Amino acid sequence: MRTTITLTDETHTFASYYAQARGLTLSAAIDELIRKAQAPLLPAPPEIFYSPSGLPMFPPSGGIVTAAMVKNIEEEEFDPKAFA
After folding, report:
1. pTM above 0.70, yes or no
2. Most CB within 10 Å of its CB: which of 7, 52, 65, 78?
3. What does residue 25 show for φ and ψ, rounded to 5 degrees?
4. What's the average model confidence in pLDDT over 6-28?
């Protein structure tokens, strides 16, 4: 489809450099930039925290897991028949 648009000088310069760098026509570059703007944003990668010893850790969530909690879960999920 043929359409006439008016661009600011800065926008035209940016689109022209973008097109040249990617080996595209100006029309194809503008089309690509508009499609990129419409694409859903990807979630940011999670931050990785490291302990003083250098081991990666889960980010702090405010909850504390105690040894008693772990023991209770292990006892609930342990099924001796499954290991027979």
Report:
1. no
2. 7
3. -75, 165
4. 95
